[in-house]
DNA sequence: GCGACAG
DNA sequence: ATCTTGTCGC
């Protein structure tokens, strides 16, 4: 993908927060996805004590969900993990991975929040704005807000509320399994985002794009995350 | 000041 | 995110 916009990620936490407050104004909470033929999932993995992030993007055809392309990129991160500033840790590697992606997915799933974030700019919204693509945040837990427990059946939902405002949706993708927390990333509305998550969740808690990205990220990490580091370090 | 806190 | 095997339940 062509990425026309980017910015420095090597900032202080205070500067990063200021940048988020500026970028949040550019997030679009609506937009018609139109016909979807390609969906992508992005994720990152790393070795516990190291500062090398392995980011991946996996593109799947829709609605059959066949993996059609997988790319990865490794980058030294300038940030530790700080709740609310995840994008500054994984962003550099993710941007490079997207640059290597030949496919043009109509929508991208990110591992984390969209607007359900302290400043309304979780990783899905932040990356969505930089890529100028429809993006959806699919998180395994909440960062801000509260949600009632959805009914036990697959497809049940419960709004994620914050100050009486609906900022996302808890979605049960499998019967009796902990829900995933979906929030708008960019250029898509919550309803379409939830529908797409349910349409791509088949037999597992995580929707297929996210699940495939997870699997590939781990694969890449121990394939290159040991060979490259230990054999090129000396 | 004391907790909470995506990945 | 990562560290880790088996095990209980649908």
Automatic annotation (TrEMBL):
NCBIfam families: PRK11617.1 (NF008629). Keywords: Cytoplasm, DNA damage, DNA repair, Endonuclease, Hydrolase, Magnesium, Metal-binding, Nuclease. Its cofactor is Mg(2+). InterPro entries: Endonuclease-V. Coiled coil: none annotated. It is found in: Cytoplasm. This is Endonuclease V. It is an enzyme of class 3 (hydrolase). PANTHER family: ENDONUCLEASE V. It comes from Methanoculleus methanifontis. Belongs to the endonuclease V family.
